[in-house]
Amino acid sequence: MAGQSTPLKVMCALAIRQAFDQIIVPDLAAAGVTLEIDWNPTTVIMTTIEAGGRADALVIMTEAMDILAARGLVDPASRFEVVQSRVGIAVPRGAPHPDISSVDALKQTLLNARSVAYSQAGASGIHFRTVLDQLGIADAIKAKATVIPAGFTAEKLVTGEADIAVQQISELMTVRNVEIVGRFPDAVQKASRLAAALFTDTPNRAGARQFLDALRSDRAIEAYRSTGLDLVPR
Asked: CA-CA distance, 202 to 184, in Å (whole number)?
């Protein structure tokens, strides 16, 4: 694909962005492939597709990919699971790390926070609202929450609008000047899997397949591991 003139259009969930920025985008650029990436939560990407939006390939949550495959919008033969991502919390750089080692400790940490930032549309935010209901503290946290429509919640730590940010670990790691406290306890954790595939009607199947191959390279796997993502068990 050296000398490619038209950018390869890709829709991607935010959880994988740091790995892309570090390794995948530069490696493809070196091979002559320029990516035009629409970064959004999977829910937003699905809304875009419902409205007729298309690309050459995409990386989104597996449940959403299954829906697109069933509708014939993506090529099921090209589909594979890339990584899985877990939810955690971050604090501003230099701030004390609160205890989240157990469900009770996490509950108290959330109640003690001045404001908790989470995403309205992202998979982590959707799961977090379920956790708040499970812990019986939904009203207390929502009353002081800093809720963003989409994007990176840890940016609200840098601006001082919140003192705890909840999101996928890989998304929290994307923001500078914050520190990762850790993952939610297993009892309230959710491991979200991301899958990649080609759009059925992509005009650039060769370039899109090169993109999918890049997602499985040794360097990509190294990037996933270094940015808080886990490989999907085979």
From this structure: 39
Once rounded to an integer, what is the mean pLDDT over residues 127-154?
Answer: 96
Provide DSSP, 67-98.
Answer: HHHHTTSB-GGG-EEEEEE-EEEEEETTS---
What is the per-residue pLDDT across 107-124, written as a single tens digit (0 to 9) for each? 999 999 999 999 988 889
| Identity at 148, one-letter amino acid code | I
Contacts of 133 (CB under 8 A, 6+ apart): none
Instruction: Tell the residue number behind the tokens 């360097």, with chain if given.
Output: 219
Residue of 162, 166, 6, 148 lying closest to 86 (CA atoms): 166
Please give the Cα distance from 9 to 83 (Å, whole number): 21
Question: In this predicted model, what pLDDT tens digit does every residue of 10-60 receive, in sequence order?
Answer: 999 999 999 999 999 999 999 889 999 999 999 999 999 999 999 999 999
Domains along the sequence of the chain with CATH: 8-84+192-231 (3.40.190.10), 87-188 (3.40.190.10)
CB 98 within 8 A of CB 112: yes
Q: 139: burial class by Cβ within 10 Å (0-12, 13-18, 19+)?
A: exposed
Q: Residue 35: in which H helix or E strand, if any?
A: strand 35-39
Say if residue 70 is exposed, middle or buried (CB neighbours under 10 Å; 0-12, 13-18, 19+).
exposed
CA distance 157 to 115: 10
